Give the backbone structure.
Amino acid sequence: MAADKRFERPRRDSAEYLMRSYGKMVFLGGLLTREEVDGYYDKCMELARGRGDREEIYNTSARYYRDRGDYERSTAYMDSLLTHYAETGKKADLGSIYIAQSHLYEKAGDYAKALEAMRKGNDFRYHSRRDQAQSKLAEMQALYDVNRLELEKSRLADRNKLFLLVAGGIVLLLLAGWAAYQQAMVRRLKLARTQFMAASEEAQRQSRRAQESEKMKTAFINSMCHEIRTPLNAINGFSELLLTEQEPAARQAFQSEIGKSTTALTALLENMLELSQLVSSEGPLPVAQTDIRLLCAERLELQKQLGNNPAVEYVNEAETEIEIPTNAFYLTRVVDNLLHNAAKFTAAGRITLRCRNDEPRRTLQISVSDTGIGIPPEKQEWVFERFTKVDPFKPGSGIGLYLCRLIVTRLGGDIRVCPEYSGGCCIRIELPY
């Protein structure tokens, strides 16, 4: 083990394995030098005492002192081992231990104790063999009883056959009625079993859903506490500074920060209210004729003003004259969330909003792409789950993309990350109309 460096086991407790290995080396004392055996014995005892393994201490010590010719200490350790087995009730071959102890007493010249140990060992062996014989006898008796029952069963079957032959006509009528009754009962049992299985599966689904709901509720509360506390702390802090600051420029900066925090807190609460309303309702969303090109241009310009980042270029690649029936309010929320995410993860570069009308397929395609940090391929579906964030250190509640997918799905469309885009992140929406 010390020479093999191919594997590391930082969490593996190898104390028991080493203890057993050192004990085995002590039992191989005839193949080693006395110094080596003494070293292995000391190591084994150190580990055994640390683990409180009395059985290993007594067993290995008895063998160690027997090989050293100290028969008195060896037999004493055997007595301790026997006492340990008696106290713990652990099963062991006590007869062999007494026989080995008898040989040690004989070598030590204590023939009286050797005779006593030999008698105890023979008694234990006798009782063990007697128990085995009784167990075998009980097994044979059970087999005999089974065979007798089988014989009685065979005789009873023969009597039933004779009775069936005598009462042929009547039995046929009874069997026909019984078969019909059994078939009806089988159908009823199958139906009951099917209903029971369905109820059981539904109960399991409800249980899993309840557990997941509890976990999501806890995650939601933790996330909301953090996200609400951040703008509230900013509002409280800058409000206190605003009351004591006399410099106009500083007061204006404080007011600007308070406004940003208020806007962020309002947007967070609006997202939560919309999410709650969408989850609690199941009906189709109302639609009306909407100018998609105008909607996209307004949201892109608004995000450009809110972002206020001269290092980011905002590009509008919407086609001209796109009007389709959709829900303008909720589609605006989707576009705002996608643009906000793109701005949040793009420190410098370009954000592009594309809009195309696929008339042959009667499908509207909207995509928002950026040159930011992007999303790893293994997380491109995961980001649409509730309370998930690509960067946990970025502000946000983790429900933006989940809300987008919920809205797009309610509008009958589909939203996903573009797997072919490699310059950052691109999210595409397809809405049929």
Remarks:
- The chain has a mean pLDDT of 83.
- The chain has eleven helices and seven strands.
- Residues 168-244 form the longest helix (77 residues).
- The beta strands are 288-291, 312-318, 323-326, 349-358, 363-370, 414-417, 425-432.
